[in-house]
Design goal:
seven-stranded mixed beta sheet, binds 3,4-dihydroxybenzoic acid, binds magnesium ion, alpha/beta, 222 residues
Length: 222
């Protein structure tokens, strides 16, 4: 095989998404309304949303923490993975995004299991100390703060908690040790923390999907 061309890898992503993810009115409406409201189109790709959903089910998650709600596309995927009584706590810094997210989770029929906390992650996370330990944490916010979010994921989880970090490929830039981009440096510091901090055991996969060339790190708390 030659290296994948953009046309070829897009066709493969479409094939997997059409075949294994399919179409869902509430998820597609969530993206449509997010776009109309002018939110950035940086929600996870459909194949990645389903990956989050499957990881939550594999982990038997009841309590999920998401850092970075945006329009709740990934939140809906996660909420649908939970048993009755399960809950997603999701943190969103932008009140206008949180309003779109609230409408989207309600329309998707999971509003009763989604708790949207408005504020910056670094401010909201310390307030979650009294919550039941989280079984899965999805980190998908400002990349500059990834090490702060990983630290809170370790504090608010338990041995066996699954931790997922979105966007760790950054179009290939993560492999550039000279990068001065703050998002890239934040991502690199997070990857190094996953290596060095004994609370984590981790790997990362690069992804080529509807959102382009990026990656996802997956860790378990020790
Ligand atoms: C960006 C952030 C994301 O969470 C994402 O999935 C894609 C892009 C960004 O800030 O550019
Ligand atoms: Mg993301």
């Amino acid at each position: 095989m030659t290296d994948p061309t953009p046309d070829a890898w897009r066709a493969v992503d479409r094939y997997f998404a059409d075949t294994l993810v399919g179409h869902d009115p509430a998820l597609e409406a969530a993206v449509a309304d997010q776009n109309v409201a002018g939110l950035p189109a940086i929600e996870v790709a459909p194949v990645n949303g389903k990956l989050l959903h499957l990881l939550a089910r594999i982990a038997g998650a009841r309590h999920v923490l998401e850092i970075g709600t945006l329009g709740a596309y990934s939140t809906i995927w996660l909420a649908r993975a939970l048993p009755d009584g399960g809950r997603v706590v999701t943190i969103e810094a932008e009140p206008a995004h949180a309003a779109v997210a609230r409408a989207n989770v309600d329309r998707a029929g999971v509003g009763d299991r989604v708790d949207i906390r408005i504020g910056r992650g670094a401010d909201v996370l310390p307030t979650l100390d009294g919550e039941p330990a989280f079984d899965l944490v999805f980190i998908d916010a400002d990349k500059q703060s990834n090490t702060i979010y990983l630290d809170w994921a370790a504090r608010l989880g338990h041995p066996g908690t699954v931790v997922v970090v979105d966007n760790v490929g950054r179009g290939g830039a993560v492999a550039d040790p000279q990068s001065t981009r703050s998002d890239v440096v934040g991502t690199q510091r997070g990857i190094e923390m996953l290596r060095d901090d004994p609370r984590f055991d981790a790997t990362a996969l690069q992804t080529l999907d509807a959102k382009g060339w990026d990656g996802v790190a997956i860790a378990v708390l020790t």
